[in-house]
TrEMBL record:
Belongs to the transferase hexapeptide repeat family. The lineage of its organism: Bacteria, Pseudomonadati, Bacteroidota, Sphingobacteriia, Sphingobacteriales. SMART domains: Mac. This is Acetyltransferase. Its EC number is 2.3.1.-.
Length: 204
């Protein structure tokens, strides 16, 4: 017997080339868009209802999280967020592959997370081939506004990404990184904590 042929959805989730025009994937995207539309158009006071919609949309959530509308995503079920997650306005996650986000992650406005990619050569791109690579974001990460994260990137824990950065390569733990392309600027140390105690009269 021959090897079982993968569906386009199975190809997508396995990181293989696939075609997003497939009916199953199109229906999945439509379901996500219906939830996202409802989420984005609820009155501001309906926080509990918005939270329930996110729990229905995302593949995994914890007890404490808050997502400011508007939100955009492709499928939703590939997004996993840890406890104490917060994202500001206009979060975009193209979750054709798994997007794993740790605890105490804070996202500024207009953060864009792209797992999706397309062939560089026009002939293949015109045949509507796509691919996707997972993105992993560690614990206690702060992404500044207008940060873009490209496919296949892993960001370590205790990391700050400066606003307007385009992250194309992995970022290690305990650093401040920024730029286009994003590069490590320096290590984060206890001196950064002391700065806030000294300048903002925080109690130790």
């Amino acid at each position: 017997m021959g090897e079982k042929q993968l569906t386009e959805k199975e190809k997508m989730l396995a990181g293989k080339a696939y075609q997003a025009g497939d009916n199953e994937l199109a229906n999945d995207r439509l379901k996500a868009r219906e939830i996202v539309f409802e989420f984005n158009n609820l009155p501001p006071k309906q926080i509990k209802q918005r939270k329930q919609l996110i729990k229905k949309l995302f593949g995994k959530t914890e007890t404490m999280f808050y997502v400011e509308p508007p939100l955009r995503c492709d499928y939703g079920y590939n997004i996993e967020v840890g406890d104490h997650f917060y994202s500001n306005f206009n979060l975009v996650i193209l979750d054709c592959a798994k997007v794993s986000i740790g605890n105490h992650a804070f996202f500024g406005p207009n953060v864009a997370i792209y797992t999706a990619g397309h062939p560089i050569h026009p002939n293949l791109r015109n045949q509507e081939h796509e691919w996707a690579q997972p993105i992993t974001i560690g614990n206690s990460v702060w992404l500044g506004g207008n940060t873009v994260i490209n496919p296949g990137v892993t960001i370590g824990s205790n990391v700050v990404i400066g606003s307007g950065s385009v992250v194309t390569k992995d970022i290690p733990d305990n650093v401040f990184a920024a730029g286009n392309p994003c590069k490590v600027i320096r290590e984060i140390t206890d001196a950064d904590k002391d700065f806030y105690y000294k300048n903002f009269t925080l109690e130790q």
